[in-house]
Design a protein that fits this description.
Length: 397
C-alpha cells in the first residue's frame, strides 16, 4: 500500500479529523498512486493516521476516508457509510418523511466528494473528487440498497470536477428514470424538480426550512423574491397568505418552471403572483426609481464568492443588493438575506448587511439567524462546510 508522508507538524489537522490534506503538507509519497487510489496517511514519525484518496491534480492532494487505522477502504466501507448517512436522515423527525432530502452531504457525512439528493423515487448523485469517482460503483450500489429508489441519476457536471482532472458525466447510473416528471411536496407545496437540466442536482434543498419560515412570516405582506429560481420562496409566501409576490430571476427556463409550479398548486391564488425576467441588480434600481415598496424582500443570490480569493468583489455585490433591498422596504418590513459563498463567513456577512442598512438610512435588527436545513450538516471539524448563512432583519416601523 502506498504511503503518503506528511511534513512535520502537518499531522495535527488530520488528528483533529480535518479530512483535507493540501499539497503543501505532503513530504513525500512512498510507492505509486493513481488518481483516486487509497493511500495510507502517515506522520513524519511513521504514525499511521488513517486512509485517504489520492488526488494528484488537485491542491487538495488527499481526502481522508477514515481516521481509523484499522478500517479498510473497500466496497463494504462505502456500503456502510452510505447506509449510515441515509439512516441519520431516517432518524430525524423533520427529514424522515421528506420527498426531497439530501442523503449524503460530502465531508460532513464522511464521504468527501459525494453528494446525493433524493427526489421521490429518484436519487441524484454528484461526484466531485477523484476518490469518489474511483468508488462510483460501490456508492451507486450502496444508494440503491439503502433506499428503495427506482433510479440513481448522475449529475457529475459540477465545475469543481475540472480541478480534480475529471470529465463531466450525466446520465442514469442505476435503474431507469420514471416517465413522468418528478414532483416533490415541500412544506405542503408541490414543486417540479428537473434533475437533468436544473441547477446543481435540480433543486435547492438547503433552503427548505427557510422557505417554510418565509411562508409563516408572509401573511398579509407584499413580497419581492429576488433570484427566485423555480419559485420555492414565492410559493411558500403565497401559501402563507402574502398579498402579492413579485419574483425575479435572470433565467428564462427557471421562470418557466416557476410558473408551472404555480399551476401545480391550484390551492394558491395565482392572481397574486407576477414574474419578471431580469438582472436583479438592475431590477432593484428600476423598482427604486418607480418608488415601489414591499413588506418582505428575499435575497437569495448565487455564490458570489466561491473562495476567499473572491471575497472583496463579492462583498461589494452583497452590499449593493442589500442596500437596495433595505431601501425598498416599507416601515416595519423584513429583509431575508442570504449568502451561500464559502468565501464569506457569517461575521463578514453580518457586517456587510449592517453596513448596507446604515447606508440605506434604516434602523434594523436581526430577528432570525438562518442556515441550511439539517440534511446539510456541518462536520464539527470542518467549519468550511458552513456555506449557507442568512439573516432575517426587520426595520423600524
Ligand atoms: N431561492 C432559490 C434558489 C436561488 S439560486 C430557491 O429557493 O430555490 C440563484 C438564482 O439566481 C438562479 O435561479 C439564477 O438563475 C439566478 N441569478 C443568478 N444571477 C442573477 C442575476 N444577476 N439576476 C437575476 N437572477 C440571477
Amino acid at each position: 500500500m502506498t504511503e503518503l508522508i506528511l511534513k512535520p507538524g502537518k499531522e495535527r489537522s488530520v488528528m483533529r479529523h480535518h479530512p483535507w490534506i493540501f499539497a503543501g503538507s505532503v513530504e513525500t509519497l512512498h510507492g505509486r498512486a493513481h488518481a483516486g487510489d487509497t493511500v495510507e496517511v502517515m506522520s513524519e514519525h511513521g504514525k499511521m493516521l488513517g486512509r485517504g484518496a489520492f488526488s494528484p491534480k488537485s491542491q487538495i492532494r488527499a481526502r481522508m476516508w477514515s481516521f481509523d487505522p484499522q478500517e479498510s477502504i473497500d466496497h463494504a466501507f462505502f456500503k456502510r457509510r452510505v447506509a449510515q448517512s441515509v439512516a441519520r436522515r431516517q432518524a430525524h423527525p423533520h427529514l424522515r418523511n421528506q420527498e426531497g432530502v439530501r442523503l449524503i452531504h460530502g465531508e460532513s457525512d464522511g464521504l468527501p466528494g459525494v453528494i446525493a439528493d433524493r427526489y421521490g423515487d429518484v436519487v441524484v448523485l454528484q461526484l466531485t473528487s477523484a476518490g469518489a469517482e474511483k468508488w462510483r460503483d460501490a456508492i451507486v450500489a450502496g444508494l440503491a440498497q439503502a433506499t428503495d429508489c427506482k433510479c440513481v441519476f448522475e449529475r457529475s457536471d459540477s465545475d469543481v470536477r475540472g480541478l480534480e482532472g475529471l470529465e463531466p458525466r450525466v446520465g442514469v447510473a442505476y435503474g431507469s428514470m420514471p416517465a413522468e416528471r418528478i414532483v416533490i411536496n415541500e412544506n405542503g407545496v408541490r414543486m417540479e424538480v428537473d434533475v437533468e437540466f436544473g441547477h446543481k442536482t435540480g433543486f435547492y434543498l438547503d433552503q427548505r426550512d427557510n422557505r417554510r419560515l418565509t411562508g409563516e412570516l408572509a401573511a398579509g405582506r407584499s413580497v419581492l423574491n429576488c433570484f427566485c429560481y423555480t419559485a420555492g420562496f414565492s410559493l411558500q409566501a403565497l401559501a402563507g397568505g402574502a398579498s402579492s409576490v413579485l419574483s425575479i430571476d435572470s433565467s428564462g427556463p427557471a421562470l418557466a418552471t416557476a410558473q408551472r409550479n404555480l399551476e401545480l398548486n391550484p390551492q394558491l391564488d395565482a392572481s397574486r403572483a407576477s414574474w419578471w425576467e431580469a438582472d436583479v441588480f438592475e431590477a432593484l434600481r428600476q423598482l427604486r426609481a418607480e418608488e415601489r415598496k414591499f413588506d418582505l424582500i428575499i435575497l437569495d443570490p448565487p455564490k458570489f464568492a466561491p473562495s476567499a480569493a473572491h471575497a472583496q468583489r463579492a462583498a461589494r455585490a452583497y452590499k449593493d443588493i442589500n442596500l437596495l433591498g433595505f431601501r425598498l422596504l416599507n416601515p416595519g418590513g423584513l429583509l431575508m438575506t442570504y449568502s451561500c459563498s464559502g468565501g464569506i463567513g457569517q461575521e463578514l456577512f453580518q457586517s456587510i448587511v449592517a453596513g448596507a442598512s446604515i447606508d440605506a438610512g434604516v434602523d434594523a435588527r436581526i430577528i432570525h439567524r438562518l442556515s441550511a436545513a439539517p440534511d446539510h450538516p456541518i462536520g464539527l471539524a470542518v467549519p468550511e462546510g458552513e456555506y449557507l448563512k442568512g439573516l432575517a432583519c426587520q426595520i423600524s416601523g
